[in-house]
Design brief:
single chain, 231 residues, alpha/beta, Beta-carbonic Anhydrase, Chain A, 2 domains, 6 strands, binds zinc ion
């Protein structure tokens, strides 16, 4: 048997017995996760480990390139997961997490190798804004530095896409939802977070305030306080 597949038996024999109380509560009372993380499918990025999350803590959506298609362009898994997280689970914090050495973003930076993968190529069009920002904005970059810039700009682009989703837009307007843009450096185990105040990615430090891409704050554009969601 594949050694990895065989490890499922150790979950049943060793891991589950130590956590059976937690699983029992979750089975009886359902889930109420505290955040939604949209991350890459890369095997080196493990949201639950990065967040030190227990079962029930984190609602997770993973795909190649941590992409969120803009609303109405695609009725798919990401759109449905975002809508369910906000509307059914009442999630108030959404994290978009990119990472170093991302294969999807390497392909966005250098699309030549995508001819044999038409679905990947079509999917990565949702990151076209990141490629354009880097090509036009940082023309001097090449190699690893250019890919890193695409990865960071892709987090920014996907946060913008996320805001096109009506459930998210309404939650933001009510001041209920915070957006977080993160970058996970695999080699250093470090998280950088987009600070919406300075428009820079900065290292997370446990003695400082958490940098937030978009802080929850009620919109008053119409001169009125938004109605709170019905409890
Ligand atoms: Zn990736």
């Amino acid at each position: 048997m594949n050694e990895l597949i065989g490890r499922v038996f150790s979950f049943g024999k060793q891991v589950f017995p130590n956590q059976s109380d937690l699983y029992g509560k979750l089975a009886a009372h359902g889930q109420s996760p505290k955040a939604l993380m949209i991350s890459c499918a890369d095997s080196r990025v493990v949201p639950e480990q990065i967040m030190q999350a227990q079962p029930g803590d984190l609602f997770v959506c993973r795909n190649a390139g941590n992409i969120i298609p803009p609303y109405a362009t695609q009725n798919g898994g990401v759109t449905s997961t975002v809508e369910y997280a906000v509307m059914a689970l009442g999630i108030r914090d959404i994290i978009v997490c990119g990472h170093s050495d991302c294969g999807a973003m390497k392909a966005v930076a250098n699309p030549a190798g995508l001819d044999a993968m038409p679905n990947v190529a079509a999917w990565l069009k949702h990151s076209a804004a990141a490629a354009k920002v880097v090509n036009d904005g940082y023309p001097e970059l090449d190699g690893v530095e250019r890919v890193r810039a695409v990865i960071l700009e892709n987090v920014v682009a996907q946060l913008a896409n996320l805001r096109t989703h009506p459930s998210v837009a309404a939650g933001i307007a009510r001041g209920e939802i915070s957006l977080h843009g993160w970058f996970f450096d695999i080699g250093h185990g470090q998280i950088l977070a987009l600070d919406g105040g300075t428009n820079r990615f900065v290292a997370l430090k446990d003695d400082g305030e958490l940098p937030v891409a978009l802080k929850a704050s009620p919109r008053l554009a119409a001169g009125l306080e938004f109605a709170q969601a019905a409890e």
